[in-house]
Design a protein that fits this description.
Layout (H helix, E strand, L loop, with lengths): L3 E7 L4 E9 L6 E9 L6 H19 L3 E5 L7 H20 L4 E4 L1 H9 L6 H11 L9 H36 L13
Parallel strand pairs: 1-4, 4-5
Antiparallel strand pairs: 1-2, 2-3
Helix pairs in contact: 1-2, 3-5, 4-5
């Protein structure tokens, strides 16, 4: 199996976590880079989105990932926060798609379950497992950076199973479309 390089993106307008992990499911993983793209909270929205785009473009240029894994935006109580997260997420998807890099979206509970075994794990548990899985001395700071690495790890581990499911569904669909169709019986009156 070929090693895959994944850029994980934990979207946010103030702090957009980014992390690059390389590996294969079931084998030790390698950390290639981790950080945060920051924007000033008092800056104009347009300028903040451009700053996120420029930061992500630098990461894509430097690490040339095979895939990008972005946290799927979910409903939060604070509409302003979820809007900023969704906007940063869209920028990440755009940057990757512009380059032809496949993008996968993972929910927070999928990421937590993949990395810790529990979809309800807290940030400290996720950080501890990321530290252990990547053989680091300490959890990456801030938590957005650790979350980005968790996204990349989740994608490396989940993608092979998801690909097999997609291939099986496609095979089933193609067989179903080639199967001979039985003639339709019609009920009708004869005169």
């Amino acid at each position: 199996m070929r090693r895959v390089r994944v850029l994980g993106v934990d979207p946010g307008l103030t702090r957009c976590g980014v992390g690059v992990v390389e590996g294969v499911a079931g084998r030790p993983l390698t950390l290639l880079g981790v950080g945060v793209v920051r924007t000033a909270a008092d800056a104009d929205l347009g300028h903040r989105l451009v700053a996120v785009e420029q930061g992500l473009e630098q990461w894509l240029d430097e690490y040339r990932p095979d895939r990008v894994a972005v946290e799927r935006v979910f409903s939060q109580h604070n509409v302003r926060t979820v809007m900023g997260t969704a906007q940063a997420s869209a920028v990440a998807i755009l940057c990757a798609s512009r380059r032809g890099i496949p993008v996968a979206l993972h929910t927070p509970s999928e990421v937590k379950a993949a990395v810790t075994g529990s979809g309800r794990a807290d940030k400290a548990q996720v950080g501890a497992m990321v530290t252990r899985l990547l053989r680091l001395d300490a959890p990456p700071k801030p938590a957005d950076a650790a979350d980005a690495l968790a996204l990349a790890i989740c994608h490396i581990w989940r993608a092979p199973a998801q690909n097999r499911l997609q291939q099986a569904a496609a095979l089933h669909a193609s067989k179903a479309s080639r199967a001979p169709q039985a003639p339709h019986a019609t009920k009708g009156r004869t005169a």
